[in-house]
Amino acid sequence: MRSLRYVVEEDEIFFLKANGRGVVYIPLRGAIIEVNAAAAQALLPGGEEDDRAQILHQITHEISSMAKSTLVKDLKRSEGFSPYAVGLCLTNKCNLACAYCHADSGPSGSTFLPVEVAKAALDFAYANAVAAGKCLEVSFPGTGEPTEAWPQMTAIVNYVEGLTQHHEPGLKISMSTNGVFGREKAKFIADHFTGVSLSMDGPAEIQNAHRPSAFGFGTFDSVFKTASYFFDRGFLFSIRATVSSLSVDRMSEIWDFFEKYFPGVAVGFERMNPLGRGRACAIRPPSIHDFNRNFERLFAEADRHKGLLLNSGVGKLNQLQSAFCKSLSYPCMTITPDAKISACTRDGAPDYFHYGCWNATTRSFDVDMDKVAYFRSITVDRFPECADCYAKYHCAGDCFDLRKAGIRRCLTNRRMIMLDLLHKLDHDRSITSVTQADPRYKEISERLYHK
Amino acid sequence: MSEKTISTVLERDSLVVNPPPAKTEPRILRVRKIDLEVNDPDIDMCACHCISYCTCNCDRGGLVS
Known about the structure:
The structure holds 2 protein chains of 2 kinds.
Chain A: E1 4-8, E2 11-18, E3 21-26, E4 31-35, H1 37-43, H2 49-63, H3 72-76, E5 85-88, H4 115-132, E6 136-140, H5 150-163, E7 171-177, H6 183-192, E8 195-199, H7 204-210, H8 220-233, E9 237-243, H9 251-261, E10 267-271, H10 288-300, E11 309-310, E12 332-335, E13 340-342, H11 350-353, E14 354-359, E15 364-367, H12 369-376, H13 392-395, H14 400-404, H15 410-427, H16 439-448
Parallel strand pairs in A: 5-6, 5-12, 6-7, 7-8, 8-9, 9-10, 10-11
Antiparallel strand pairs in A: 1-2, 2-3, 3-4, 12-13, 13-14, 14-15
Chain B: H1 3-13, E1 28-33
């Protein structure tokens, strides 16, 4: 699913043949245009030049009244280092032993982020948030399970809540979690967090095969209770389901399962990556063909679901960006359990992404600004193969770490974005995003900002 | 093809021969506008740090635009 790019008066106009239809997409104007067969023919290589000029003229006239967006890259690039979003990787310990764990985490992890380092990071970020008049964003990413560092987590949450109690732009706290914990932890999270991403792969037999506990027990009952508690509380959470060869042909059933018990909750399907323990485990990644075939089926069935359908590479139709990940760009700062600053905590090349560390002597963070500049330069414009691709401002060149691992998701990204464009064209509704015009917007917004 | 030739063909093969179709002009069939959300550049990117957790409640994979 390749596209052709025309640049007319600084507008990037992408043409693609989508399921036999001629579709023109101008992302920075937010415009999707269907053209007739003659126009499609003209826009293809070898098309008649007069006809091409004629249809391009019609297109530029049509979009001239649509506001042109400014990309994130133009707004975010700045000098210095003053993040107001902080990722605190609390530990490398995990209570689960997921078959495919990219981080090879488990119960033997023994490194915990010192609370004083976390507090220093929060103080730094809070000062930046105040100066910028921005919301302070705090997240607890992997590589271990954040709730395994419970004393640290509760201390940090209580600290940052006190720190920001008079901060008008507010505080957001989020986390990625396996949800395998009791009611007391679930209640604390629902009371204090803005939202969480819950890793849950589907019905019991899939969840238990993919994500057993460190002692080999199934985890379905526990995570299902957590999800039910969050749902009943009206607490905002999304579900992240990893798809393996075991579950790929059950993706539709998995989404139906989540919709049955947690209607309206966004579900992200991510293809398993052969990284960490996933390199050699019995459960294998699904083929790209199988994943795409089943993912495409979900798009076809999307109208019977209230919640959004998500994928990290596909992104959202109504959001444009030139860099894939905030952790590779201003204004985010992520601290690893051993007190290093990292742009990616995911895989086996951690040193590559480190760009600073906690200095216990000066009690401040040392930052390698050359590396910061380098990471900020990693935008979609860096990849020549993306130049003519209509998906470029959605996948933004995709995850840089996956690129380094030799994993490309272009087929999936392009196909699903194309399907969402067609859905928007035919039904004026996106599968991957909601807008204020969408009836779902009010409900979801109220849940997000109910705190 | 001359009229005479067409006539010959019709007599020989009993085919219905349509006149050459008028050229279809290239044109737009339909336009849709996406309501882009770029008002706050600080929330429209992912802070998930890790592909395995990309469906967190940040705005890339997350819950709401």
